């Protein structure tokens, strides 16, 4: 990892107000923490807003302390707001990206612009949920919003979020439902909210279990179109800096925005997981906060620093190296592109022949029907760190797939962009899915996943209007794999691996279909190459870390278990976050999570997952705890979702609710 330099001497001395009330038009008070320069009341500064549900008092506080004082110290009011119904804010939360959430964002921005310490110019920045809603807010064009920085986000809620991908329901759909059931179950801090207990009970009573709702929308309907900024590329008119990472699964957004958006857009892609680039693994980390200040100086302060002339796209091209599910660093080099699509990228079509990629194409007549447990080495949808959450060696999954290998690449190869797979195939079932992985195979046989793509074949012609898969009749599909930036070493092979299963990344179809491949090709985005780094990013910097004391260390485990009697295969993930005390305000927080994903290789209806989350908060003699357990099992005609949410004040139970809902498998 690149060493993070701590900076405490800023151009401006700061005022840190931990609980500023911003009252919404309906009377609900949102809680904001605001860092701003001393003297801003007489010399107003622009405001930069981060607006998320993840609790500024404990949840994101460690990262907030690194970022927001740094931004404020460079002459901004840096504002961190808890969304309605979360953290220390009043109200109730009903879903993600609701109209109420967007209306509140507009009200917060208008409030900020009117404050005596604000110049009237507002920027918006966020990662993941915050990256989504800063684009969604820009889409609504509030007059005070002048620019955004969106990190690890998407422009299409159906195509590229945690719920569906290529029409396939992701394992992260029930996974994220468990996360939100747990995360939103916690109360406000009694030190800030004397009414915390009554408010907490209201939250618990109103708490939704969202996974069934998300799963019930199995096509790109109005539910998903809401909040998808791709619905109107012309709507966003402010400058956008879009940031992503190759180890995250929101890597397509940068290319979408650069290729479609009509405002000023710049893209930045690194090797990172689902984190901000000054702390994210794998390294190299970069000075993301310096890049952000340069962006804000140009668009919020009007400083002519040339930021608008920076490269349209700065991308870190990964280099071949041995596979690892937890690399602290990835070898590579930075390339810069003046436009996207890049004039340095040329589409190159490689035909498929039995077992062979490239050269002379040939009829295939190859059957694909893979075991249900294929995919255990895929990693997380959005890995967060070094707990073996990234794709590992693909050899075991490759051995169960239908593979097409190139000849050894004598001169290596540079790839930047999206590969497109075109196939003619037949199916023996009206429900079927296909998954494609592009891998780098070293001379020793080890296999590194470069990128992947997937398609629910009912969505082969339309995400909005799925149709039955033709049985026994040939049909054509086109599947765009995810964006990639990759340099294959000389002597390595390029492998295309196809499967009908991808557990637990994607939930299996109700029946195990056999697909027969008749012919196909793979179009590759061949980059003309570069001799070395074309951009030297600033070194990572941040404000001082939060003051805390570890009371109990955490631990993590990730393992594959096989039951030799039942034949079941399970992926078990355990993460104990430990417990830590905030030395500034005394709140002790901790969490523990366990996931078990189980399936039999020969039975798609054996798929099931159980996820358990415990959340803990305490201070002195006060303590609360919540426990959320969720389950998803499969039937031929429906998905069965169950959950239980419990809460304790001290040792006294105060809440207990069971959830149960069946979702019809319309297209799954």
UniProtKB/TrEMBL annotation:
Residues 293-545 form the Xaa-Pro dipeptidyl-peptidase C-terminal domain. Keywords: Hydrolase. The keyword Nucleotide-binding does not apply. InterPro entries: AB_hydrolase_fold, CocE/Ser_esterase, Galactose-bd-like_sf, Xaa-Pro-like_dom, Xaa-Pro_dipept_C, Xaa-Pro_dipeptidyl-ppase/CocE. The keyword Ion transport does not apply. It comes from the Bacteria. This is Peptidase S15. The lineage of its organism: Bacteria, Pseudomonadati, Pseudomonadota, Alphaproteobacteria, Rhodobacterales.
